[in-house]
C-alpha cells in the first residue's frame, strides 16, 4: 500500500474521494482500492501476455512459425474455455461485493435509530439551504452554502430539492445522493477528520451547476455546539443607511433574523459574513466580493435568480458594509 499511497498523494485535498475523512467515504475508498488492485492485476497479466507474444514473434522472425497464429499446441483452446469463466467470476465477485455493501448500508440505515442530530439540506438553483433543528424553540436554525458537522457524530441529512434534481456530494465524507423534487432522501454521515472540505452539486441542474458548491467544516463537538449557538442567535441590531437600504430593497427575498427581514426566496443572511464563501462557493467571503456580488450578480453567475439591485453607489456601499458586519 505505500506505493499506492505515494501514487495517490496528489489526489488528496478538500474535495477528493481518495482522501476519506469519514466512515462512509472510507467504505467507498476501500471498494475503490479493491477494484483498482484487481483491475491493475488484470492489466499487468494482459500486458505480460502481449509482451510474451511479441517476444516469441521476434525470435521466430524469418521462419514459417512466425505465421502460425496458434500458441503452443492445445494451450489456446484451453485458454478459450477458461478465460471467459475467470473473467466472469471476477466481474461477478466484484458485483456481489459492491451491491452487497450497498444493501448492507441501506439495511443498517433502516435499523439504526434516527441520529440525534438532523440537518435539512435543500437544493435550489444554484445554492443550498441548510437548516439545523433548534431543540430550544423546536424550530429551525437556518444558514446557507455552509455545512458544519461535529467530528465523530453520526448526522442524518434530510435532502430535498426546491426546483430541479440536484445531487448532494461531499466526497471526503460520504457518497453522493440525489435531491429530487417531491421526494425526501436521507443520508447518514459520520465525519472523523476535522477540517474544511468542499461539497459540490453532482447532478447537472442548469447553467450554474458548476457554481453550486458549499463549504463543509468538520469540527470537535464543543466547537460545533458553539458555532450552532452563534447561528441560532439573531443578528445584532443595526441602524443606518446600509440596514435601511437592505430593508427597502433586499428583505423581500432574504431573511435577517432579528432585523425584521424575512424573505424566503434567497439565502438567509443572518450571519452571512461568518461564512467562508459567497454565492455558493463562487466567491470568497470578503466585503469587496459582497459589494461586487450585489452590483453584478448576473455577470458573476449568469442565470442566477439574484437580480442586479438598483441601488445608488452610496447605498450599495452601505449595504455591503452592513452585510460585512453580520458575523
Ligand atoms: Cu445543482 Cu447541479
TrEMBL record:
This is cytochrome-c oxidase. It comes from Sphingomonas citri. Residues 237-327 form the Cytochrome c domain. Subunits I and II form the functional core of the enzyme complex. Electrons originating in cytochrome c are transferred via heme a and Cu(A) to the binuclear center formed by heme a3 and Cu(B). It is found in: Membrane. It comes from the Bacteria. Keywords: Copper, Electron transport, Heme, Iron, Membrane, Metal-binding, Respiratory chain, Translocase, Transmembrane, Transmembrane helix, Transport. InterPro entries: CcO_II, CcO_II-like_C, Copper_CuA, Cupredoxin, CuRO_CcO_Caa3_II, Cyt_c-like_dom, Cyt_c_oxidase_su2, Cyt_c_oxidase_su2_TM_sf. The keyword Heme applies. It is an enzyme of class 7 (translocase). It catalyses: 4 Fe(II)-[cytochrome c] + O2 + 8 H(+)(in) = 4 Fe(III)-[cytochrome c] + 2 H2O + 4 H(+)(out). It holds the Pfam family COX2. The chain crosses the membrane at residues 27-55, 83-104.
Amino acid at each position: 500500500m505505500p506505493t499506492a499511497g505515494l501514487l495517490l498523494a496528489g489526489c488528496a485535498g478538500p474535495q477528493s474521494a481518495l482522501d476519506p475523512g469519514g466512515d462512509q467515504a472510507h467504505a467507498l475508498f476501500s471498494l475503490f482500492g479493491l477494484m483498482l488492485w484487481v483491475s491493475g492485476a488484470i492489466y499487468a497479466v494482459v500486458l505480460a501476455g502481449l509482451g510474451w507474444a511479441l517476444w516469441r514473434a521476434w525470435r521466430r522472425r524469418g521462419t514459417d512459425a512466425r505465421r502460425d497464429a496458434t500458441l503452443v499446441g492445445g494451450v489456446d483452446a484451453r485458454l478459450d474455455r477458461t478465460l471467459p469463466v475467470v473473467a466472469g467470476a471476477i466481474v461477478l465477485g466484484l458485483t456481489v461485493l459492491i451491491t452487497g455493501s450497498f444493501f448492507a448500508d441501506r439495511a443498517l440505515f433502516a435499523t439504526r435509530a434516527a441520529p440525534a442530530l438532523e440537518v435539512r439540506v435543500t437544493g435550489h438553483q444554484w445554492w443550498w439551504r441548510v437548516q439545523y433543528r433548534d431543540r430550544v424553540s423546536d424550530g429551525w436554525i437556518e444558514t446557507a452554502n455552509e455545512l458544519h458537522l461535529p467530528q465523530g457524530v453520526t448526522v442524518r441529512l434530510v435532502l430535498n430539492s426546491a426546483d430541479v434534481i440536484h445531487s448532494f456530494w461531499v466526497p471526503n465524507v460520504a457518497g453522493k445522493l440525489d435531491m429530487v423534487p417531491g421526494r425526501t432522501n436521507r443520508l447518514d454521515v459520520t465525519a472523523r477528520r476535522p477540517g474544511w472540505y468542499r461539497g459540490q452539486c453532482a447532478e447537472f441542474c442548469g447553467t450554474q451547476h458548476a457554481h453550486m458548491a458549499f463549504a463543509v467544516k468538520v469540527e470537535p463537538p464543543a466547537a460545533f455546539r458553539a458555532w450552532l449557538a452563534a447561528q441560532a442567535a439573531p443578528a445584532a441590531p443595526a441602524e443606518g443607511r446600509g440596514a435601511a437600504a437592505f430593508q427597502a430593497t433586499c428583505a423581500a427575498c432574504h431573511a435577517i433574523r432579528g432585523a425584521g427581514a424575512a424573505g424566503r426566496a434567497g439565502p438567509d443572511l443572518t450571519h452571512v459574513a461568518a461564512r467562508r464563501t459567497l454565492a455558493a462557493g463562487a466567491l470568497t467571503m470578503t466585503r469587496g466580493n459582497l459589494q461586487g456580488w450585489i452590483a453584478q450578480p448576473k455577470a458573476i453567475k449568469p442565470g442566477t435568480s439574484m437580480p442586479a439591485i438598483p441601488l445608488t453607489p452610496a447605498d450599495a456601499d452601505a449595504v455591503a458594509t452592513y452585510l460585512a458586519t453580520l458575523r
